Amino acid sequence: MEKEDPLMRLEREERERKERGGSLKAVMWVLAAVALALVAALAYVWSSKTSLVKDLEIDKQQLTEQIVSLQGDYEALSSDYDSVNSQLDSSREEVAQLVERIKNTEATNRAKMRQYEKELGTLRSIMRGYVKQIDSLNTLNKQLTVQAANARREAAEAGRKNAELAEQVSALTDKVAVGSVLKARNLSLVAYASNGKVTDRSSRTAQMVMNLTLSENELAPTGPVRIFLRVKDPDGNLLLDGTGATFTLGSDMVPATASREIDFNGKDVEVSIYINDTGAFVKGIYTAEAYTVQGRLGQAEALLR
């Protein structure tokens, strides 16, 4: 092997050294460029992350404000109905719990934030439902209040009219009761001798007859009616024919001189009642009163000489 010239060897080594130095510088420049790129990338990532966190914090703050505002709306909402109030209390508790949860959750927990947004939307919908329900109930309550007031007025008016009608019925009933009482006219007391002729002599009088007309009355009940006579002599003594006839006068049971039953059909009825077997007749004025169980029909007198 040929031995290398020392000068040439030194030149060669110098060239190799320079080549190695150039390569090292190139590598250093490449590494520096990579380092700068990494620093720039890290700075961008950091800046982007910081901006994103700020945006998420703002979103959290806005969501928190919306929930707190909804909480105030729930607190301001009131109702006069127990069933609605019970539901409101439950929803208020849900809103309060949501406020606490969002305060205790990091803004970067986007999954939770989206969940809270959905819950906020649901609670808002429930809120609108409460408002609509309360409005409907208030409207219905007003309608029922008006109807109740109208019903009370109508009831009061009906009560007043019923009272007036009752008074009218009572008055008419009284009128009917009064109108249904039998009345008599043309009452007369006549003395007859034994030969059947009218007389005014006490010594000739064998009997007396009470004549009267029961007046027409469509309101009075039809059917049998008994007429009672009470005849008193000039001294005021009641004449009795021995039959023992009695009737009720007021609240007392009193004796009658004579009586007769007739059939009343609502039309005029001519009635004659004979007074016999009462003993001798004396001078003076005889008084005869006619009655039914309803009351007194009238009175007639006869003078015997």
Question: What key phrases describe this protein's structure?
Answer:
3-stranded antiparallel β-sheet; alpha+beta; single chain; rod-shaped; 305 residues
Protein architecture, described:
This protein has 305 residues and is of the alpha+beta class. Helices cover 53% and strands 23% of the residues. It is built from three helices and nine strands. A four-stranded antiparallel sheet has the order 6-3-8-9, with no helix packed on it. Strands 1-2-7 form a three-stranded antiparallel sheet, with no helix packed on it. The chain has a two-stranded antiparallel ribbon with strand order 4-5. The longest helix is centred in the N-terminal third of the chain and has 71 residues, at 6-76. The model has no long low-confidence stretch (mean pLDDT 82).
